[in-house]
């Protein structure tokens, strides 16, 4: 069964067929995300989000490109958005042992700001 046939069945209401596409392209999407994010957990989460987005947008798939190209493009765009988007979280990293100091220091990294907290 081709991807187009599977997609037609999904669009006709056989939602379970989407599992076939997920199983077929999950590694492609995951590896794409991991290449941008360099973190397995983040890549796993984003992979799930991408397949949800793909399912919700499936009716807009025109078939001009292959499904693999279409989902790959979604993965690249989502990964770029994730990398570009400031998380808003403060990332704390212990640097005491790195600098060889007895007193631990934390590095607070915010978009546009880096400061050392003693």
What brief labels describe this structure?
mainly alpha, Rna Polymerase Sigma Factor, Chain: A, 2 domains, disordered C terminus
Measured by DSSP, the beta-strand proportion falls in 5-15%
Task: List segments where confidence is low: pLDDT < 50 over at least 5 consecutive residues.
Answer: 88-97, 102-110, 113-118
Domain unit count: 2
User: What is the averaged pLDDT score?
Assistant: 82
Which of globular, elongated, flat, extended, rod-shaped describes the shape?
Answer: elongated
The oligomeric state is single chain
Question: What string gives the helices and strands in order?
Answer: HHHHEHEE
CATH fold topology of the largest domain: Rna Polymerase Sigma Factor, Chain: A
Based on the coordinates given, report the CATH architecture of the largest domain: Orthogonal Bundle
Biggest sheet descriptor: 3 strands, antiparallel
The percent of residues in helical segments reads: 55-70%
Q: What is the C-alpha radius of gyration, as a whole number of Å? A: 20 Å
- Fourth-tier CATH superfamily name of the largest domain: RNA polymerase sigma factor, region 2, helix turn helix motif
Distance between the termini: 61 Å
How would you explain this protein's 3D organization?
The chain is mainly α and 118 residues long. It has two domains: 3-84, RNA polymerase sigma factor, region 2, helix turn helix motif (Rna Polymerase Sigma Factor, Chain: A, Orthogonal Bundle); 86-118, no CATH class. Helix content is 58%, strand content 12%. The chain has helices at residues 3-11, 18-37, 40-56, 67-84, 96-99; strands spanning 91-94, 106-110, 113-117. It has a three-stranded antiparallel β-sheet with strand order 1-2-3. A hairpin with a 2-residue loop joins strand 2 (106-110) and strand 3. Helix 2 runs parallel beside helix 4 (67-84) and helix 3 crosses helix 4 (67-84). The chain starts with a helix and ends with a strand. The model is unreliable at 88-97, 102-110 and 113-118 (pLDDT under 50).
């Amino acid at each position: 069964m081709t991807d187009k046939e599977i997609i037609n069945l999904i669009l006709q209401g056989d939602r379970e067929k989407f599992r076939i596409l997920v199983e077929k392209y999950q590694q492609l999407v995951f590896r794409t995300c991991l290449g941008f994010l360099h973190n397995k957990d983040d890549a796993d989460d984003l992979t799930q989000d991408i397949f949800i987005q793909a399912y919700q947008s499936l009716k807009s798939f025109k078939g001009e490109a292959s499904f693999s190209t279409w989902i790959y493009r979604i993965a690249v765009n989502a990964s770029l958005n994730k990398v570009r988007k400031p998380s808003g979280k403060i990332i704390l990293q212990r640097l005491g042992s790195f600098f060889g100091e007895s007193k631990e220091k934390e590095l607070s990294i915010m978009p546009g700001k880096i400061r050392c907290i003693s």
